[in-house]
Design a protein that fits this description.
- The complex is a heterodimer of chains A (152) and B (737).
- Chain A contains five helices and five strands, in the order E-E-H-E-E-E-H-H-H-H.
- Chain A has 152 residues and is an alpha+beta fold.
- In chain A, strands 2-1-5-3-4 form a five-stranded mixed β-sheet, sandwiched between helices.
- In chain A, helix 2 (83-90) crosses helix 5.
- Chain B has three domains: 33-191, Aldehyde oxidase/xanthine dehydrogenase, molybdopterin binding domain (Aldehyde Oxidoreductase, domain 4), CATH 3.30.365; 211-285 and 343-418, Aldehyde oxidase/xanthine dehydrogenase, molybdopterin binding domain (Aldehyde Oxidoreductase, domain 4), CATH 3.30.365.10; 291-336 and 429-734, 2-Layer Sandwich (Aldehyde Oxidoreductase, domain 4).
- The chains are: A alpha+beta (152), B alpha+beta (737).
- At the A-B interface, helix 1, helix 2, helix 3, helix 4 and helix 5 of A face helix 6, helix 8 and helix 19 of B.
Chain lengths: 152, 737
C-alpha cells in the first residue's frame, strides 16, 4: 500500500510501487489533467510537483512518492486562479491544450524559485516541455505576465 | 449484453469524474418542442439559453471559439448566454471532416444563414406580438428591439418556434458593421478548462468495467502475425485478455494495422503485457523498403522525363537555346505528425450497436470504418468527439477508432485503445517523401525564359489503391500546377514513385515539399542573376493579375474545391503579402542580418514569411526572428488566425530542422522525441511578428497555409548567412543545426 498526499488529500493506493506515478494518477485516481505524451521524460506533458519539485511522472515510480506530497494541475489552485492560469487565459496561450498542464506545472515551479525569471531561465526551465502547436512565444509572455501580477 | 442508448449515456456521465466533457448539452430540448429549433445548429430555449452546435473538431485551431461566435453574432445573442454543444458524427450537419483548412472557408455564408434564419423567426414573433412590421425591428443583445422596447429571445422562443422557417434565399445576412464581436480577436472559450486540467481528450474518459488496450502492430506495413504466445503477457498482473487484431485486406486505407492487443486493468499493465508477448511476424512485401535507397530511386525518376501535368510554350526548345541553365534537385523525407496526444479512443459495444468517444477530425468517417470493421449498419454506430490533443491530419484517419470498436466487441467490455508514442512514430500515415528536379533557362539578359519542374512522390492515393505508382496531375495542384510564374515556357511533370509506407495528409500536405523546392529555387535564381531575392521573386511571380488556366497551362484546377471565379489565383494578393512581410522585417535596411524570404498560396490563402537566422554559440544555425504576413480574406477570429501563423512557424521549423522518418527493412527507425525531434522552447524565435491583411473578401484557409513558406525561408536565410545552399531536409542531415 502506497500512502501519499495528492493535491492536499491523503490517499492510499494498492498498486505495484513500480507503476509510474502518471498511470497511478490517471488510471487509479482518475486525475486525467496530467497527460501521457512519450513515456520517457522527453516531452514534459506529464509534469507534476513532488514535494514542490518538478518531476516527469511517466518515469517516476509511484513508490517514490510514498509519504510525500504530489500536486497536479487539478491542485495548482482551487479554482483556476493561479496567476499562471489567469495569464494563460488572458494571452490565449493554448492551441490544442494537451501539453499545457505540463507547461504550467513547470512554470509554477520556476516562479516559486525565481519570481522574476529572465528569458534564459524560462527557456532553460521549459526546454523539457514540448508543444507541437508552437505556443512557445505566448508561454514566455504569459510567464512574464504572471510574474508581474504575482509581484504586485 | 443489452444496453439501451439511454443507459450508454447515463453510464458515461455517472462514471466520469466531475469535469468538463465537450458534449455537455444536447439539443434535447428540441425534441420536447419547446423553444426555437429552426435547424440542427441553433436552439433558443424559453429561458433564453442559446445553444449552438459546433460540428467541427477542436484541435487547437480554435474552431469552438470561432464558429459558434460567428453564429451567435449573426443571431444577435449575448456570448455569455451561449452554450456550445459539440456535435457527434452525423450527416445531418453536412461535412464534418475537420481537414483542409475548410471549416470557415467552406461554410461561412451557409452557417451565417442558419443563424440568420433563427434571428428572422425571433423578429417575426416579436412583430406579431407588437403588431408592427418586422423590418422595423432589430435583434441585438439577446433581445428583439422596437426602439426602446424589447422582448428577450427567451420570451420569443416558443412563439418563434411555431413559425415557418424562412428559405435560405429569403434570408438577409447582417451587414458587417452590425456584427459586434467577430472579425477581431475572440475569447478562447476552452481556455479555463484547459488550464485547470478539466478538458477531456481522447484518453481521459472511462466507462465502468473498461479495459485499456495496447496493441503490438506488425513492424512493417502489410506484415502479418504468423504465431504468438500470450502466456507471458497474461501472467503480467492486471492483464486480462490477449486478442488478435483482424488482418487488413487490400489497400491499407483506414483499416486497423493488425497485430495482437493486450487488454488490462490499467495502461501500465497493458504496456508491460505487450512487452511480454512473444510474436513471430511475417514482414511481408514492404520489408525491402530502405528509404535511403529509395531516395536514389526518386532521384533517378526525376532525371527522366515524366508525364506532363502543366505545359505552356515549349520548354525543351527554350532550355536548348537558353544562355544559361540553372538546375537543382531537392529532397524532403517522410514527415510524421506526432501530435502531443498519441491516438486513443474509447468504445463500447452491445446489442449490435457501437458507441465510441474519440479525438477524431472526422467522426463520420470513423462511423463508416467502425461499421465496416464490425459488419454492422452505420446507423448502429455513434461517434462522440472529444478534444483533440493536436491532430494535423493524423486524426482524420479512423484506424485507431475502429481498433477500439473491434476490441470492445471481442472483449465484451468497454475498451480504450492507447497508442504509445513509439506506436505513433512507427505506424503513422507519413507525409509523402519527395524528390524534385527544377531546371530554369535564362536568356542573355538574365530573364527566366523556361521553367521545368519534375516531381516524384508516392501520393496519398496509394493508401487507398495499392496499384497507384506515382503522383497524378491532380496531386500537383498543391504548389506546382497552381504556381503563378511570369515565364513564357513552363512545364511540370509527374514522375513515378511507388509507395512502401502508409501515406497520408499532414498539415499543408504536398505544399510542404513543393513550396520548399520552388521557394528555394526562386532564391537560387536570384543569386544566379545577382539580384535582390525579393525583387527577383516579384519578377518571377510577375505583375498583379488574375492568373488564367491558359496561362497556367492546365485544363482545370481543383482549387481546393472552390470556384476560380470566387477564389482566383491573384498575384496582387501574393505580392501584397510579400511586400508586407518584407516591410515588417525591414528588408531594405537589413544590413548584415541574414534574412530569407518565401511566399506561397495554399488553401486559397496567401502567406509570405521572412526568417532571420544567426549562428548560436556552438556555431549552429538558430532562427531568432520571423515575420509572417497572411491574406486569408475575411477572418472571423483574428487572434486564432495569428496563433495559427505563429504555430506554423514552429511547425515548419521542426520539419526543416529535424523532420524525417526513415525506414530500414521496412521498419521506421525513429520511435520517440529523442530521435524524432521537435523544436523546443529554447530554440523558438525571440519574436514572431504576424500581420493578417484586413479584407472583406471570401474567407480562405488558415490552419495549413502558414506552414509551406517556412522551410524555404529558413534555407534561403541560411544561404544569406553562410553561402551554403540547402536542398535537402532536414537541416540536421547537413550538420548545420
Amino acid at each position: 500500500m502506497i500512502r501519499l498526499q495528492v493535491n492536499g488529500a491523503n490517499r492510499e493506493l494498492d498498486v505495484d510501487p513500480e507503476m509510474p506515478l502518471l498511470w497511478a494518477l490517471r488510471d487509479v485516481l482518475g486525475l486525467t489533467g496530467t497527460k501521457y505524451g512519450c513515456g520517457q521524460a522527453l516531452c514534459g506533458a506529464c509534469t507534476v510537483h513532488l514535494d514542490g519539485e518538478v518531476v516527469r511522472s511517466c518515469v517516476t515510480p509511484v513508490g517514490r512518492a510514498q509519504g510525500r506530497s504530489v500536486i497536479t494541475i487539478e491542485g495548482l489552485s482551487p479554482d483556476g486562479s493561479h496567476p499562471l492560469q489567469k495569464a494563460w487565459c488572458d494571452l490565449a496561450v493554448p492551441q490544442c491544450g494537451f501539453c499545457q498542464a505540463g507547461q504550467i506545472m513547470t512554470a509554477a515551479a520556476l516562479l516559486a524559485k525565481s519570481p522574476k525569471p529572465r528569458d534564459e531561465e524560462i527557456d532553460h526551465s521549459l526546454a523539457g516541455n514540448l508543444c507541437r502547436c508552437g505556443t512557445y512565444g505566448r508561454i514566455r509572455a504569459a510567464i512574464k505576465r504572471a510574474a508581474e501580477v504575482a509581484g504586485e | 449484453m443489452a444496453i439501451t442508448r439511454r443507459e450508454f449515456v447515463g453510464g458515461l456521465l455517472i462514471s466520469l469524474a466531475a469535469g468538463r466533457v465537450l458534449a455537455r448539452t444536447r439539443l434535447a430540448q428540441a425534441s420536447s418542442g419547446a423553444g426555437l429549433t429552426p435547424n440542427v445548429f441553433v436552439h433558443v430555449a424559453p429561458d433564453g439559453a442559446v445553444t449552438i452546435v459546433c460540428h467541427r473538431s477542436e484541435m487547437g485551431q480554435g474552431v469552438r471559439s470561432t464558429l459558434p461566435a460567428l453564429l451567435a453574432d449573426e443571431l444577435g445573442a449575448d456570448p455569455q448566454r451561449v452554450r456550445i454543444d459539440q456535435a457527434d458524427g452525423d450527416k445531418k450537419y453536412g461535412d464534418q471532416n475537420t481537414d483542409g483548412s475548410s471549416s470557415i472557408r467552406n461554410r461561412y455564408e451557409e452557417l451565417r444563414r442558419v443563424a440568420a434564419a433563427a434571428r428572422a423567426m425571433l423578429i417575426a414573433a416579436a412583430a406579431k406580438k407588437w403588431g408592427v412590421p418586422a423590418d422595423s425591428l432589430q435583434a441585438r443583445d439577446h433581445a428583439v428591439w422596437n426602439g426602446k422596447r424589447s422582448l428577450g429571445f427567451g420570451e420569443l422562443a416558443d412563439a418563434a418556434g411555431k413559425l415557418p422557417v424562412p428559405k435560405p434565399e429569403e434570408i438577409k445576412l447582417r451587414p458587417r458593421s452590425e456584427m459586434k464581436h467577430v472579425f477581431r480577436a475572440l475569447p478562447l472559450v476552452d481556455g479555463p478548462a484547459i488550464v485547470n486540467g478539466a478538458a477531456k481528450f481522447g484518453a481521459d474518459l472511462r466507462l465502468e468495467g473498461m479495459l485499456v488496450a495496447v496493441i503490438a502492430r506488425p513492424p512493417v506495413v502489410g506484415g502479418k502475425v504468423v504465431r504468438f504466445d500470450p502466456k507471458r503477457a497474461l501472467a503480467v498482473p492486471g492483464v486480462k485478455r490477449v486478442i488478435q487484431m483482424p488482418q487488413p485486406q487490400g489497400a491499407v486505407g483506414f483499416q486497423p494495422w493488425g497485430g495482437v492487443a493486450v487488454l488490462a486493468e490499467n495502461t501500465w499493465a497493458a504496456m508491460r503485457g505487450r512487452e511480454a508477448l512473444q510474436i513471430e511476424w511475417d514482414p511481408g512485401a514492404n520489408a525491402s523498403y530502405d528509404s535511403d535507397r529509395y531516395r536514389g530511386d526518386l532521384s533517378a525518376s526525376v532525371h527522366k522525363p515524366g508525364k506532363p501535368a502543366r505545359n505552356v510554350g515549349d520548354v525543351e526548345s527554350a532550355l536548348a537555346k537558353a544562355a544559361r541553365l540553372v538546375e537543382a534537385e531537392y529532397h524532403v523525407p517522410h514527415l510524421a505528425h506526432v501530435p502531443m496526444e498519441p491516438p486513443a479512443a474509447l468504445a463500447r459495444f452491445g446489442d449490435g450497436a457501437c458507441e465510441v468517444w474519440a479525438p477524431t477530425q472526422n467522426p463520420q468517417a470513423a462511423r463508416t470504418e467502425i461499421a465496416r470493421v464490425l459488419g454492422i449498419p452505420e446507423e448502429k454506430t455513434t461517434c462522440h468527439v472529444t478534444f483533440l490533443g493536436g491532430a494535423f491530419g493524423r486524426k482524420s484517419k479512423a484506424d485507431f477508432v475502429s481498433e477500439a470498436a473491434f476490441l470492445a466487441r471481442e472483449a465484451r467490455v468497454p475498451v480504450r485503445v492507447q497508442w504509445t508514442r513509439e506506436d505513433d512514430v512507427r505506424h503513422d500515415y507519413y507525409n509523402a517523401v519527395n524528390t524534385q528536379l527544377l531546371t530554369a533557362g535564362l536568356d542573355s539578359e538574365g530573364k527566366v525564359i523556361a521553367w521545368r519542374q519534375r516531381t516524384a512522390f508516392p501520393p496519398i492515393a496509394t493508401t487507398f489503391d495499392a496499384s497507384v505508382a506515382g503522383p497524378r496531375e491532380g496531386d500537383l495542384q498543391q504548389g506546382v500546377t497552381d504556381l503563378p510564374l511570369a515565364v513564357p515556357n513552363v512545364r511540370a511533370e509527374t514522375c513515378d514513385a511507388p509507395a512502401h509506407a502508409r501515406i497520408g495528409w499532414l498539415r499543408s500536405v504536398y505544399n510542404i515539399f513543393h513550396a520548399f523546392a520552388a521557394g528555394s529555387f526562386i532564391d537560387e535564381l536570384a543569386h544566379a542573376r545577382k539580384r535582390d531575392p525579393r525583387e527577383s521573386l516579384l519578377e518571377v511571380i510577375g505583375p498583379p493579375r488574375i492568373v488564367t488556366l491558359a496561362e497556367l497551362g492546365i485544363p482545370q484546377l481543383r482549387n481546393y474545391g472552390a470556384p476560380l471565379e470566387k477564389h482566383p489565383i491573384d498575384t496582387a494578393r501574393l505580392r501584397t503579402v510579400i511586400e508586407r512581410a518584407t516591410k515588417m522585417a525591414n528588408w531594405d535596411n537589413r544590413s548584415t542580418r541574414a534574412l530569407g524570404l518565401a511566399a506561397h498560396r495554399s488553401f486559397l490563402c496567401y502567406v509570405a514569411a521572412v526568417i532571420s537566422v544567426v549562428r548560436d554559440r556552438a556555431g549552429k544555425i538558430a532562427v531568432d526572428e520571423a515575420w509572417v504576413a497572411a491574406d486569408a480574406g475575411t477572418v472571423v477570429n483574428v487572434d486564432r488566425a495569428r496563433s495559427q501563423m505563429e504555430g506554423a512557424v514552429l511547425f515548419g521549423m521542426s520539419h526543416a530542422f529535424y523532420g524525417g522518418a526513415t525506414m530500414k527493412g521496412g521498419v521506421t527507425e525513429q520511435s520517440n522525441f529523442h530521435d524524432y525531434r521537435l523544436i523546443r522552447m529554447s530554440q523558438a524565435p525571440r519574436r514572431i511578428h504576424v500581420e493578417i491583411v484586413e479584407s472583406e473578401g471570401p474567407p480562405c484557409g488558415i490552419g495549413e497555409p502558414g506552414v509551406p513558406p517556412i522551410a524555404p525561408a529558413i534555407a534561403n536565410a541560411i544561404f544569406a548567412l553562410t553561402g551554403q545552399r540547402i536542398r535537402e531536409l532536414p537541416l540536421m542531415r547537413a550538420g548545420v543545426v
